[in-house]
Amino acid sequence: MEAFFVSTAIVALAEMGDKTQLLSLVLAARFRKPWPIVLGILVATVVNHALAGAVGSWVTTLLGPQALRWVLGLSFIAMAVWMLIPDKLDDDETGAGPRLGVFGTTVVAFFLAEMGDKTQIATVMLAAQYNAYLWVVMGTTLGMMLANAPVVWLGERITRRVPIRAVHIVSAVIFLGLGLVALFAPA
Q: With a threshold of 0.70, does the pTM exceed it?
């Protein structure tokens, strides 16, 4: 259960101000149909994070415990630094045409925007660290939904009130702490 709760919290925090959260806002403003957008985000996230979690679980079969410890520790520290770099949504990431419908457009756009994103990389690392694939994927998916669904329904009102910079700093400190624990905690 620890893997679930940590994964949920980390991804929910990491997603604040992230480009996929901005994409959620853009989709909500463009289509004004919250249910298909939220369901599209859920489907895209489940598929994306299931693949990322599988990669994380697979990595544990390739690396010995000591090498994995160093890779995870340094990766979490790199994530801490990355959290301090603000995201902005690239114009071409919302380019999926409406001919796919609101749901289809959301699935495609969100899945592609999440590729190589902080939360996808975090899912890989968490799955490798906890060796609890299902709990990590469920937790990271819940974290994504906690961060993105309210944006779809409440839109700009949330983004004006949430101090994104403070959330990024808290997330960076958490990732740094995880990295230090991975590197220096007794095996």
A: yes
